[in-house]
Fold each of these.
Amino acid sequence: MTSTEPQLPPAAFDTHAHVFTRGLLLAVERRYTPDYDAAVDAYLSLLDAHGLAAGVLVQPSFLGTDNSYLLNALAKAPERLRGVAVIDSQTPGEELDRLAEAGVCGIRLNLISRPVPPLGERPWQRLAHELATHGFHLEVQAQQRQWEELEPWLLRWPGAVVIDHLGLPAASSLSYPGSAALCRLLAAQHVWVKASAPYRSAPEAATAMLRSLLCAGGGERMLWGSDWPWTRHEDGRVYGTTLSWLTAELSVTEAQRILCANPARLFAWTPCIAGVDR
């Protein structure tokens, strides 16, 4: 950690990062193909260098529902890593058992450039209750009017819901199609939000949303993620600035809550902090 970076509280989490290498089997339908490696050892070194105790690895969309590389990465440091996998609505409970045993704590639904699935239909409703039984949260990446389609089902979701990247706000005014539905979701007591990846939202919109949520008490269910290695937004990106973007807006008490207490509560897990270079 450099002298210009914030001093973090013990047991701080990065709740959103990706790992992959070239040569993996890629999903047929994908928006992006990486031409570099983002290995788990490199990520663990970043956690150490920045005084972070734990990380959550999120399955990247270009790997589809093949979670094998993610599970192998989790096995390298089970005391410091948890995972968010990608599955389909037909996934049986036995597979969820296997994912849980490997350190998976949530399931991702990435809807960028994809239609909203029929969450009210039987397969999704069955899966919703299976996820809740396993203690898995549903992590959703969506934008604008997709939140209007998602709202009625996510408000009734039986387990925790996590909204990726502050809901990808489309204007710094926070007024745009779908923004009202997003705000209603963010006010629900079972809905959490990741303060992450401001570069994926409209200019200044993520910071405006972060400040709005903090003013409204939304920090009670807020998490932080680095979004490393910033797929499709890699140029000029530095790990430390993804953290200082958040902490510049926080009091010491808020930093402890968002970086430590909140993720420990959502994931029902306190990581081992021995050996972290602080």
Amino acid sequence: MKRIALVLLGFAGLVGWSEVVHWRASRALVHDRRPARSEAVVVLGYRDRGTEANAMNRWRVRAALRSIDPALDSVLVCSGAGGGPVPEAALLARHAAALGFTGEVRLEDRSRSTWQNIEFLAPLLDGVDQIKIVSNPLHAQKARLYLHHQHPDLAARLVRGGDYRFGEAWPLKPLLAAHGLRKLALGKRELARRAAM
């Protein structure tokens, strides 16, 4: 009985840790919201090789749509080339439309990495007052880090999106937290390598 209680306590601690990691990531490298008239909500794709958005991309689109501020002139920017017959960006846009989104959509369909997502997105973000990058929170943090490095002027417009919700997808959060922290560390190492070149 005591062993079961310890296992349950350990599992609860792991889930709690992952919630904190995701919560902190969702608030990293963003600014307080300022008066704005327009925004770009950027949704980053995830390894789609089919002709329909996969489960992760469907979740990311839902998070992007709930990030949209109805009081602003908003554009949804879908990013990713993917590895299938239909670009990931198009799959994201198609799923957003299936969920009822009827606003402006811009596609970036050349990128094959988070670095390229940010590199190729920049021209699509020009002219908006605020930018929200939506993915799972740790991936979005990595993308914001890259935006700060590549385009500090655009990074100054970053505000928090709606990709974190307490308890959402909690069984996956410990795994996503561990994977995301590893990828974030690799991203920081890559930035240090680029700075040293």
Amino acid sequence: MSIPTRAAVVESGGAPFTLSDVELDEPGPHEAVVRMVATGLCHTDLGVASGGLPFPLPGVLGHEGAGVVEAVGPSVTGVAPGDHVVLSFTSCGDCRNCRGGHPAYCATWLPLNLIGGRRADGSSTISRGGEALGGHFFGQSSFAERALVDEASLVKVDPEVPLASIAPLGCGVQTGVGAVWNVLKPVTGSTVVVLGAGAVGLSAVMAAALTPATNIVAVDRVAERLALAKELGATHTVNAAEADLAEALAGITGGQGADGVVETTGNVGVLRQGVDALAARGTLVVVGAPPFGTEVALDVNGLLGGKQVVGLTLGDAETQTFIPALVRLVKEGRLPLHRLISTYPFAEIDQAVGDMGAGKAIKPVLTF
């Protein structure tokens, strides 16, 4: 028997989000129905809604959900009705990378999470008037009052922590934190540079502040975001609209360059500047995603000093351990995620989209 709910549907590429009555399929093996309490809004949602990715539309997006389990399907063992959960990406659990502790690099990641719109067997999870909609987005499609969620996407969390305060952990925050903790791994004396002070970049700043890094440099073109970065742990800021990045970083590092760079903007010109700013044996983590097919030119000889350029998906996190650790840091005040969040009622999703696009909101969170 299908489960009625209300969702924000994107009818076609470039169309607004429209609230609509839809039906969820009943939970199958390793699936659960979750009553949504909050869900973050991410640039990935907007990129798909604009038609920039081949996700099947009309469809239901949303991939930073948080809520309470209402029902579980056969074979579900990790959660039970009443559990508080944060929703993240899904994975097959059986490929080499999944078994090796790197589910963000699952062999079937793209169709299961980003572009497929269906379960792995091709069946639909959400419909309207008998017609299948694109769904199963990151195994959840959480822009809805209820979501049918893959068990692999479910992370049981501390019920004492308000769900609206931790919904962004499912994607943006774990991406920024993971770039620092799982890839750069700063040591004493390190210089970490974060290019872009949006939600992912500021999460990287907060993560770096919890490491032995000596210099934490936030770079952006918006003075207010740089001021916030300073409050969240940046030791230095660079306004790229007013200063030459290479000169500024040379001054901060005594000409040595950066040991680690997190590139969150998706701008290939900024990426090139970041690679050029690396110290010998330094690493740049590519987080920002420009349109598919985008290329960047690099000075090959400049890489021979041991520089590394590493792509990253979702912080290379193993969610079942990583997200509960972040929840604890939020609870204890050591990861002040609330400084990034602006909340909106679910019905005001288009206002949240507009405010995010205008730079008025760093991390919009929709509440139900």
Amino acid sequence: MPQAVIYDLDGLLLDTEPIHAQVYDEVAQQFGVQLDPAFQAKLRGRPSRETSRLIVETLNLPVTPAEFLAIRKPIIEARVAQSPARPGAAELVQALHQRQFPQAIATSSTQPAFAIKTQQHQHWFRLIETVVCGDDPQLERPKPAPDIFWLAAKRLGVKPEACLVFEDSVSGVRAALEAGMTVIAVPDPADRDRLPSEVHYCLESLADLLDRDRYPDLLADLTALPALPR
């Protein structure tokens, strides 16, 4: 039985990934280029600074990554403030909280960005006791390095191997696997074939865990989930 759960944020608990993709593309189009879906897929789950660097360098844009981010900032902040919850996310967090099960978030988002994205969902985000953001002063390396998951486990007071991670991005899954944790992937359909073969389970939605016919006891079944076809 796992002793704690760690969640990603973007694309896992909140449906922000389409917003991020659209805004990155809009900013790139200001310089006469468009981001193709394959390139967009490689950017999912990475910190905004790293994503901006990859876009600027790959597409040879006439701005610095910092300048690209400055253009993006007001656009993305206005849109992610309206981010809806992913199906099953609030219900899962609330169910685990009722069982006094330790929960944490490990997100590449900065603390200010995290506050904006979650402001309309505080009734369930406040139930998650630990949050590690991408700008945490104790975080040395971002995803796909495992550091953020190790830091979350440390603050929960749980060993890495006793943590269960829910992730949607390929880079996040790799980071959690390298951290030595059990990983349940809830990927974008376009990413299913790109997941590392070591991933423990793959779900279509967090809402799958709330299907009482398939999972009559939520916690008991967390360690006995069927691997769904990719």
